[in-house]
Design goal:
Elements (H helix, E strand, L loop, with lengths): L1 H51 L2 H6 L3 H9 L2 H4 L3 E4 L22 E3 L5 H10 L3 E5 L2 E11 L2 E10 H4 L3 H45 L19 H34 L1 H12 L5 H25 L12 E2 H19 L3 E4 L6 E2 L3 H18 L6 E8 L2 E8 L7 H6 L14 H10 L3 E6 L6 E8 L11 E2 L9
Parallel strand pairs: 7-9
Antiparallel strand pairs: 1-2, 1-5, 3-4, 4-5, 6-8, 9-10, 9-13, 10-12, 11-12
């Protein structure tokens, strides 16, 4: 994973360097060439201005001293880069329009760099142009001094003038390009670090989940543009959804195992009661021992199924208490009919949602009804009432037996004093289930049947929550046989 992180960051950095370099070259190279051409044009434009500055003086006079003073007054003349090629005197037979310059009888003022032929060509053609000379270029500018005669102003432009400031411009542009590349590398590295960190967290969470840590989740920042990219945030959400689904599936699997084990309680109770009536003998003892062993194995399965892993997150699972109670009473009714017990179920005709798992509530109902069959005589009637209020669901289980002589001692049976065939959990299962919702478990005497009564209160909302506080209770005077 570390090698993956480094390779991803390096890939992003290389891509940033390549992209920024291409963009910088595409813009900076033409810009540098334009700066170079601008410096060249600036030098020749300055030379043309220097040459044009002598035009008024040549139009007034061709006196060599006056022209020499005019040349010296210019910047190019002061730097010995300007020369004036004066035309010679016009002969009497001269053809109008002809001109003689410099070597053709005229004088040259200043330091000349251009060849005589080029000067004569400029004077003869009457147009300015540049010619290459050692160390640079010479601008030749013809100036008409009078009818038929033309002087030529020469301005020397050195090669250094053509490239003055170009090197500095290239250095500045190169520095800008390097700065852009460095900034892109920094941004790419920071982006890569965030992406790699998010990918590492996702991989670590996947490994932890694979190792059995069901509580692991990937922290996901919901803000757009913050933290990891949108794709990795979606992957994190998908991972968390998958982990939640795994937890729910495991919880459902434990609930199913517990439910299937609870379904075996009724036939096992019948077998245990039938085995108790077999009398004495080796065969009877072996049967009773086998039934007890089978019951202990089923109880162990129930306890294992109800025991969630320590690192498993809490999963809020609700169920319909009325449906669960109808199902469990229906299972126990078969044994009640065999033993001649009258039974009554009231108030379970409407949904009553409680914040407990279905398997846990079924285990609690089985524990309560199992105590009725275990601790009362055959033929003793029992009843189950469901009362739903705005803040709780109350389950009342009463019987016509002798009742509780010591309620506190009866609760202690849930801690391992229930005798042979007990799960070792007893009423403690019921008490813990009630307390997990904020409710409670109370033992008393049934006002209807006269025997013991157990009141299981499952809290569905806080005590201080608003509500009308009404309750629903339907009692039927009809006992089933």
């Amino acid at each position: 994973m570390r090698r993956f992180g480094h390779s991803l960051r390096w890939a992003l950095i290389k891509a940033a360097v390549a992209g920024t370099t291409m963009v910088a070259l595409a813009f900076l190279i033409p810009l540098g060439l334009m700066v170079q051409q601008t410096a060249r044009d600036r030098s020749f434009t300055a030379a043309e201005r220097q040459a044009a500055a002598l035009g008024p003086a040549l139009a007034i006079t061709t006196d060599q001293d006056a022209i020499a003073r005019a040349v010296a007054s210019t910047d190019a003349g002061a730097q010995r880069r300007m020369a004036v090629h004066l035309p010679g005197p016009a002969p009497a037979e001269a053809v109008p329009g002809a001109a003689m310059v410099g070597p053709d009888g005229g004088a040259t003022i200043g330091e000349a760099h251009a060849a005589s032929a080029d000067v004569s060509t400029a004077g003869g053609q009457g147009r300015s142009f540049t010619v290459g000379v050692p160390g640079g270029f010479a601008l030749l500018q013809p100036v008409a001094v009078d009818t038929g005669r033309t002087a030529v102003v020469e301005v020397y432009v050195a090669d250094d003038d053509l490239t003055r400031g170009v090197a500095t411009a290239w250095l500045v542009l190169s520095a800008v390009a390097l700065a852009l590349v460095a900034i892109s590398v920094l941004v790419a590295d920071r982006m890569g670090a965030r992406i790699v960190a998010s990918a590492r967290r996702l991989a670590a969470a996947a490994r932890s989940l694979g190792a059995g840590n069901l509580a692991v989740r990937v922290p996901v920042d919901g803000r757009a543009g913050a933290g990891s990219p949108e794709e990795l945030r979606e992957a994190g959400h998908a991972f968390n959804t998958m982990a939640d689904r795994v937890v729910q599936l495991l919880a459902a699997e434990r609930e199913l195992a517990a439910d299937l084990s609870h379904r075996l309680r009724t036939p096992l109770t019948v077998l245990r009661l039938n085995a108790a009536s077999l009398g004495e003998g080796d065969a009877a003892d072996a049967t009773r021992h086998a039934v007890s062993q089978l019951e202990r194995e089923v109880d162990q399965i129930i306890r294992s199924a109800r025991r969630a892993p320590e690192d498993a997150p809490a999963v809020t699972v609700g169920c319909d208490a009325a449906e669960v109670i109808r199902e469990r009473v229906g299972f126990w009714s078969a044994l009640a009919e065999d033993e001649g017990r009258r039974w009554q179920l009231a108030g379970a005709d409407r949904p009553a949602q409680v914040p407990v798992q279905r398997g846990d509530l079924a285990a609690a109902v089985d524990a309560v009804l199992g105590n009725v069959f275990r601790h009362t005589a055959i033929g003793t009637a029992f009843s189950v009432d469901v009362l739903a209020t705005e803040s709780s669901v109350i389950v009342l289980v009463g019987d016509a037996g002798p009742g509780f002589t010591d309620p506190e001692s009866a609760l202690q049976r849930g801690q391992g004093h229930g005798g042979d065939g007990s799960t070792g959990l007893g009423l403690d299962i019921v008490r813990k289930l009630a307390e997990s919702t904020g409710g409670d478990l109370a033992l008393g005497r049934s006002a209807v049947l006269g025997g013991a009564e157990l009141r299981l209160r499952l809290q569905t909302r806080p005590d201080g929550a608003p509500g009308r506080g009404s309750r629903r209770r339907t009692r039927s005077a009809l006992f089933h046989r």
